[in-house]
Description:
With 172 residues, the protein is an all-alpha fold. The protein has five helices and no strands. It starts with 6 loop residues before the first helix and ends with a helix.
Amino acid sequence: xxxxxxxxxxxxxxxxxxxxxxxxxxxxxxxxxxxxxxxxxxxxxxxxxxxxxxxxxxxxxxxxxxxxxxxxxxxxxxxxxxxxxxxxxxxxxxxxxxxxxxxxxxxxxxxxxxxxxxxxxxxxxxxxxxxxxxxxxxxxxxxxxxxxxxxxxxxxxxxxxxxxxxxxxxxx
Length: 172
């Protein structure tokens, strides 16, 4: 009996050849090298997109900086034009219309506006007090102390009025 003449043997042999071929194709398609190459290509695409984004942000800020510089120069020119016009068109002796700032002063003030953190004036300022200071006498109570009163032991309203009347006269 010939093995190739039996259809079951031929079908079984074809099945095994197909199975081996499918396993080989599956391993070739889904191998770790294929995954690594796919991940590398995705990484390269994302890196290129990120680099393009960084460049566009840098270009944006460079253009914004240039525009702010132009705005500062235009502000100085407009101020000078208005000051010169006020001097030539109005009474030049009037102090509020005279040119008060030079170009250097205007440029310095515009730089201070652009970068206020460089200002040294903030160190000279004192924060407002949220309390009433005591008198110079160390033993005295402050005006916000609960023990502070007009006169120690003044329980009667007549005594309080006697104390307040001279003070009111001084104010009037």
